Amino acid sequence: MPELGQENTFEQCISEMALAGFVGTEIGNKYPKEPHKLKEMLDIRGLSVASAWFSSFLTTKPFSETKEAFIKHRDFLHEMGAKVIVVSEQGNSIQGEMTTPLFSKKPLFTTEDWENVTTGLERLADLAKEKDMSIVYHHHMGTGIQTTEEIDQLMEMTDPQKVFLLFDTGHLVFSGEDPLTIYQKYQSRIKHIHFKDIRQSVANEVRNTPISFLNAVKMGVFTVPGDGMIDFSPIWNAINDSGYKGWIVVEAEQDPALANPFEYAVKARTYIKNTCGL
């Protein structure tokens, strides 16, 4: 939703990231599309590019369309020095629909959908490998791969040397999954991490009423680590014990008019330093 935070400039966003003590960023819609310009603006603030979201449509469009867009995305991230590419299947997704109820209208994949998405992801992984990069699949609310069972099926149907997993605390807890169980089960395949928290009261309301994903975000279902219901201590212990090497990206996904981004960035950074020692 570009309208959220449209009053905040790109320069303000990345300057406040650096000021809050972060050293990297994923790429949002405000960011310059020219690698040399973006790199210059990040370098002077001590920031690196961790990754960027890519929407695949392996279940609803010809593979050639996703392939063409993916190569362009891959080459941009490669030039920016990223090592992983965040991929999420958006065929029949309801996450971008303002009025579709999140829980009662969640899409389910058919046998054919599963075949298309898993074989397609492996082909994208081969394209990523050409640049010495990996794809990390983002399980996500409002999509065909959200629940524990769906994550299990994705992992079972794909080559563990090709398709890796993005571990997102907020989406797992919001969906009703156990993030610690997911991490411990798939730690060898997790190559990227998103830390965000959940406001329990908002999540309960969304589960019990016909509210869409985007409206849930606007209502404040997500917040930064340390401000919601998730205890990150056991999660961090599992991550640390596993020897994980990679980015942990902190997300808020809140309306900046309601939750000052810099204030919450500092709150998150302080909490993670105290909890994880990072």
UniProtKB/TrEMBL annotation:
Q: Where is the signal peptide?
A: none
The protein's matches in InterPro entries, at most eight in alphabetical order, are given as:
IolE/MocC (IPR030823), IolE/XylAMocC-like (IPR050312), Xyl_isomerase-like_sf (IPR036237), Xyl_isomerase-like_TIM-brl (IPR013022)
* Domain Xylose isomerase-like TIM barrel per the UniProt entry, residue ranges: 18-268
PANTHER family xref list = HYDROXYPYRUVATE ISOMERASE (PTHR12110), INOSOSE DEHYDRATASE (PTHR12110:SF41)
- State the name under which the record lists this protein: Inosose dehydratase
Source organism:
Carnobacterium divergens DSM 20623
